[in-house]
Here is the input.
Amino acid sequence: MNTKTLLCTGVVGTVLVMLCCVTPILVILFGLVGLSALTGYLDYVLLPALAVFIALTLYALWRRGKGSGCRSKCATGDKQ
Here is the structure.
């Protein structure tokens, strides 16, 4: 998978999950739809999703940094 795609997915996912964790967007939405009984279970889904998206972002940044070093060595013809 492309590093840029991984990074975009990780950042967008992290921002969306943070919006749902920090602001009461899902609580209001569930209340309007009639699913307010499920708001107690949101933490069981949102917190692991936040951890996964943060890990995905960190992996994409690590892979991006690792790839740029390889390109510079390969461009000059240096062997490891």
User: Anything to note?
Assistant: The chain has one domain: 3-69. The radius of gyration is 19 Å.
